[in-house]
Amino acid sequence: MSAAAAWVEPRLDVDKLSYEIFSMLENEFLFGYDDHELFLRSAAAAPAASCAVAGRVRVLSVDAAEGVITGATLARLEASLRKQSGDPDARLADFFDLAAGSGSGGVLAALLFTRGPDGRPLFSAGEALRLLAKHRRHLAFGAPRKGILGGLFSRSGGLLRRVFGNTTLRDTLKPVLIPCYDLATGAPIVFSRADAVEADGYDFRMEEVCAATCAGPAAVEVRSADGRTMIRAVGGRLAMGNPTAAAVTHVLNNRHEFPTAGGVEDLLVLSIGGAEAPKPHGKARAPLSAAELVSIASSVHADVVDQAVATAFGECRATNYVRIQGYGAVPGTTTAAAEGEGMLTERGLESVLFRERKVSERTNGEKLDLFAAELIKEQERRKQSTVPAVTMKKTSVTPFRSSSPTGFTTMASSS
After folding, report:
1. Cis before 217? omega within 30
2. Could you tell me if 128 and 74 are in contact, meaning their C-beta atoms sit under 8 angstroms apart?
3. 2-16, 244-258, 266-280, 369-383: which has the minimum mean pLDDT?
4. Residue 386 has pLDDT above 70, yes or no
5. What is the pLDDT of residue 176?
């Protein structure tokens, strides 16, 4: 009998617990957990596999999807955090350590994590949702730079110029990652606060960052705040529609800002997708348009990233990784409010390696409420901890920035 065949059924001389653990891991890798009771019993029998840790870095990732729908999801999360924490002024930036966003998701990250004149985030999630709902056509992928999008991003008098003023990447309250594709170098570019703090040539105005991640099909030229770096950008949806993997990689490889993050068990990740359902295509249908191909590619990329991240988290994905994804509503078929509420009442589809996706046991709204509870637990834990979960370089300049000298500031409790 071969070594592989020996695992077909337990032999008398094989420890029963070891066999159950092996079977659990094999089933998780090949098929996913259909029997949740087996998962819980096996995890309890193997303490070494537990996901309980002293503290977790909190990551928010928002896809390049329909901005109003993802905005409604964030507004629901912020409302849940306020209710559960008892703080009516709580903002998402208070409960996350890093925000990644692509396309309209990048605009949301910028609105929610840029420091305002009072030192608090420029926008609450509800305020950001209302802004995007009012100007939703302006942020649609594929809108030309001239005309609608030009009015939104124009350097003099544009809406986002008025919103962000002269703030740059250095003015964000927490680390942010916002991607685009640079035609000049033929490679994806990720605007990062960490890079902006290190070198002036990587510091861009927030208005320009938003223009770059939403650009398409016409390229947008943006320059760093010092004018030395130029990027010919097309949208983040092409470069990195789902930035979750980039966010996780950034945290795990950045010990300066996240000194306690050694593995996925040290993370708490919320990934928010859209509600774009793929349209069926008959055999007799005409060839797909460029816009349809981009939409399909973006949807597939988002699903592949979700599946890869979920697999990397393994058994910890039940608590440490949550994906909010809607599939029922198609953007544009109803009102913005109805689309957002519809996604929250849906039971999303979860990726399982080598198998078709399965329907989640909970609605997206229920998953958000449970995740909010985990964020609050981590916030409370930090109030009792003397070890900072995050350290972040602090700089000054521009009207919205603090005038304190450059240095390191820790965020062990309130951040």
Report:
1. yes
2. yes
3. 2-16
4. yes
5. 97
Q: Which amino acid is at 216?
A: G
- Band of the pLDDT at 300, cuts 50, 70, 90? confident
Task: Specify the amino acid at residue 356.
Answer: E
Supply 163's token pair: 């919103």
- Cβ atoms 32, 241 nearer than 8 A: no
Distance, first Cα to last Cα, the chain? 58
269 to each of 25, 247, 317, how far by Cα in Å? Answer: 22, 9, 9
Annotated catalytic residue within 102, 104, 295, 360: 102
> Does residue 68 contact residue 250 with C-beta atoms inside 8 Å?
no
Among candidates 53, 136, 62, which has minimal Cα distance to 92? 62
Over residues 21-45, the pLDDT tens digits come to 445 444 444 444 444 444 344 444 4
Q: In DSSP terms, which residues pair with 114 in a beta bridge?
A: 172
182 forms beta bridges with: 187, 233
**Residue 80 phi, psi (nearest 5):** -65, -40
**Contacts with 112 (C-beta within 8 Å, 6 or more apart), sequence order:** 74, 91, 92, 93, 99, 121, 122, 123, 124, 125, 128
Could you tell me the two tokens for 212? Answer: 């770059």
- 164 in helix, strand or coil? helix
Token match 């097309």: residue?
234
User: Any catalytic annotation for residue 224?
Assistant: no
Q: What is the mean pLDDT of residues 349-377?
A: 81
What span, in angstroms and rounded, lies between the C-alpha atoms of 48 and 207? Answer: 47
Identify the band that residue 155 occupies on the pLDDT scale cut at 50, 70 and 90: very low
Rounded distance, CA 28 to CA 223, Å?
47
Per-residue pLDDT band for 235 (boundaries 50, 70, 90) equals confident
Q: Parallel, antiparallel, or unpaired: how do β-strands 98-101 and 57-62 relate?
A: parallel
